[in-house]
Amino acid sequence: MTYSQFETISLGNLRVHVYSSPKFKTTTLSILIQQRLAPDVLTKTALLPNVMQRGTASYPSTLSLKRKLADLYGAILFGDVYKRGERHIIQFGLEIANEQYLQEKESLLQAGLSFLCNVLTEPQIENNGFVESYVNQEKTILKQKIESLRDDKIRYAAQRSMEEMCKNEPYALFNHGRLEDLPNIGAQNLYTYYQEVLNTCPIDIYCVGNVSSEEILQLLEKRLPTDFISASRNPIQITSTTPSVKDVKVVVDRMDVKQGKLNMGCRTHITASDPEYPALIMYNGILGGFPHSKLFTNVREKASLAYYASSSIESHKGLLTIQSGIEIGNYEKAVAIIKEQLEAMKQGQLSENEINQTKATISNQFREQQDRPYDLINFHFHSLLSGTHRSLSDMLEQIKGVRKEDIQKVAEKVQLDTIYFLRDQGGDPHAKD
Question: Where is the Peptidase M16 C-terminal domain (predicted)?
Answer without folding.
Answer: 185-360
